[in-house]
Amino acid sequence: MAEQRVRRGRARWLVLPVAALAGWGCVRGVSASQDSGSPSHAASPRTSASAPADPSAKPAPSGAYDPADYAPQVRTYAKKAGVSARLLMAILYNEDYKPHDPAFERSWQKYKPDAAFGIANMHRAAFDETKRGRDFASRTWQELPDDRALAVEAAAWYLHDMSKQLPAHWAGPYSREELMALGYNAGGGNMAAFARGAKPGSQAADYLARLRGNWDKAAKAVGQAA
């Protein structure tokens, strides 16, 4: 069922306004499913925990990509933010339901101004709040589609901020990581409500189901035991 929901989520991005598709096609000229600009698997080890983490490495953005190619950045920024690399990678897998091509994202944003940017699908307000006092405070939300390392860094610190909002104890049946993921998807206020025992709505429940489905894959990607 989770796979069916993911396929339905991807299908939604195939039904787009003609203007958005035309703008994307003019700039890119190839299908989002083509891996013409993605990092080479040979140059980016996916499962070695000892692989050097270089957050400055910025593989060329393309529509089709594998979140595991960004395992070095995930490990680096998760460690800096004090959050689980496995959780951060699982979030990237959860957010991999639409094409992450810079031209596509900007065309879509013109049609839907409140759309999220980057491989972690972050909204402008969330990014602007998260960057305060951080190493990337001078960066802008508009850079997220082009700089995937920045997107990973911002997502790591957003999860850090979610963790600080968690109560010491909670009544709900969720793990700490699951609550943080729900906070990433639905916001801190809803996360606190879920911690008190509130039942997630269909969207949040679907997000949680996909997170659980991606959990083992995320562990493998960052080199952790499943």
Give the N-to-C terminal Cα separation: 22 Å
Number of helices: 10
How would you characterize the largest beta sheet? none
Rg, rounded, reads 17 Å
* Oligomeric state of shown chains: single chain
Global mean pLDDT: 79
Unreliable parts: 1-9, 13-57
Beta-strand portion reads under 5%
Question: What's the overall geometry?
Answer: globular
Helix proportion: 40-55%
How would you classify the helix and strand content by structural class?
mainly alpha
Structure description:
The protein has 226 residues and is an all-alpha fold. It has helices spanning 2-12, 18-28, 71-81, 85-94, 102-111, 124-130, 148-165, 176-186, 188-195, 202-222. Helix 3 packs parallel to helix 7 and helix 4 (85-94) packs across helix 10 (202-222). The radius of gyration is 17 Å and the shape is globular.
List keywords for this structure.
single chain; mainly alpha; 10 helices; 52% helix; 0% strand; globular; disordered N terminus
List the helices and strands and how they pair.
Elements: H1 2-12, H2 18-28, H3 71-81, H4 85-94, H5 102-111, H6 124-130, H7 148-165, H8 176-186, H9 188-195, H10 202-222
